[in-house]
């Protein structure tokens, strides 16, 4: 049996450069792994049983529409394998939240099956398979602090972010990533990302500099539809976060803090709000 902790991500910066002919957008993102993880365990079973994904979340798709299932099916198809596989999926990462929960599960499946079935795939080959499932999967395979370009699948390693505490606040709403990108209009963006400034701050190990330049242009789409995001951002800062931003297409808001006591204080303050799930986690330098 193999067990993998599949980490969530936040975006320190998310910029949209334009729309492409294939209907995706060209993006420029700085992605950061956090400790919060789903837990996946894998075991082979008799081939007649096929691929089974059993999770702790009622209503989560269990067959083709589950990204973990999709990743397993892709491996079997690519390597012409006729096997049965049982995947136990404990979800801890909020779903449809902007934290790459589904993508990280798919990444975990690729990494696990490569090991379990001795497929001999190196990281670039795993990432090429991952990109067929979703744009964030290659990042989730590697983790850490990365610059993501193209539709998110072209990656460059960045200096590790100074370790800090991350408070996640997930309002009840679910946001579809496709919806957010489809409704993006450059004219509605109030502040554009300065990716170079964040990279410079990362190079200097300057947490304050990173915090000063946090920016996500998709806030211009998701916040008007879900006002509680702006409210949560304000509350994070009011209670002591160095900075706060929406992650990915939202609606999760994160706050960054360099001190554990302060982080616990913010968690306590936000936990009183109805219909908001609050999670304390921290940045990690690798998977
Ligand atoms: P991203 O940040 O990459 O846009 P997200 O965190 O916003 O991702 P997910 O949690 O990946 O969104 O969920 C998006 C959709 O994918 C949900 O509607 C969910 O039903 C579906 N889905 C399929 N497989 C999974 C999985 N293993 N875990 C979570 N969601 C999944």
In short:
Helix content is 33%, strand content 30%. It has 10 helices and 11 strands. The chain is globular, with a radius of gyration of 19 Å.
Q: What does this entry look like structurally?
A:
With 287 residues, the protein is α+β, with helices and mostly antiparallel strands. The protein folds into two domains: 2-157, Ribosomal Protein S5, domain 2 (2-Layer Sandwich), CATH 3.30.230; 165-282, Alpha-Beta Plaits. The chain is 33% helix and 30% strand. It is built from ten helices and eleven strands. The strands form two sheets. Strands 1, 2, 3, 4, 5, 6 and 8 form a seven-stranded mixed sheet that branches. The chain has a four-stranded antiparallel sheet with strand order 9-10-7-11, with helices on one face. β5 (145-149) and β6 form a beta hairpin. α1 (67-78) packs parallel to α2 and α2 (101-116) packs across α3 (123-133). The mean pLDDT is 96. The structure holds adenosine-5'-triphosphate. Pathway: Isoprenoid biosynthesis; isopentenyl diphosphate biosynthesis via DXP pathway; isopentenyl diphosphate from 1-deoxy-D-xylulose 5-phosphate: step 3/6. One of its GO terms (biological process) is terpenoid biosynthetic process. Residues 66-144 form the GHMP kinase N-terminal domain.
Helices, strands, pairings?
Blueprint: E1 2-19, E2 25-45, E3 51-55, H1 67-78, E4 84-90, H2 101-116, H3 123-133, H4 137-142, E5 145-149, E6 154-157, E7 165-171, H5 177-182, H6 195-203, H7 207-212, E8 215-216, H8 219-225, H9 228-238, E9 243-246, E10 253-257, H10 260-270, E11 276-282
Parallel strand pairs: 1-8, 3-4
Antiparallel strand pairs: 1-2, 2-4, 2-5, 5-6, 7-10, 7-11, 9-10
The structure holds adenosine-5'-triphosphate.
